[in-house]
Input
Amino acid sequence: MLIRHLQNCSARPGLGLGKIAATSAGFSLFELLVAVSLIALSCIILFGVQADNVDRAAEARFYTQASMLAQQKLTQLNLQDFAGLTDASGDFGPTYPRMSWSLRVHVLTEEESGLAGSNGWLKLVELTLRDSASRHYAYTVRSLLLRKIEGLP
Output
């Protein structure tokens, strides 16, 4: 069986057993190098695209979580006593251990708000959320909170 296979490798009659003619069909070393180079180049391009997609997915996940957590934190601030709103920072506990928040509060004057008689009624709240594992992601929300006015529901 092996002898018959080796005899079939010969392209010209008369060549001995195990000898292969120079005109036999096959790939040269240069052709193989070109093929391997093209495969390697394709793999490099695909891995680059994959890495970029992973980064984009992590960014999208951060901004989705941050917007949800910011809405939750702003609701808590809205329910909190107006006079007790001051600068603060913290995290979201074991549920979201990588996320932290910082709060800056500024009482607006009549000149800043443009509303006559509104001195001390409005506070500008700036809430920033960060991912502690990745310092280049930050989500900031600015909102105005109004003091509860006596006599209004």
Summary: The chain is about 40% helix and 25% strand. Strands lie at 88-92, 96-107, 122-131, 134-146.
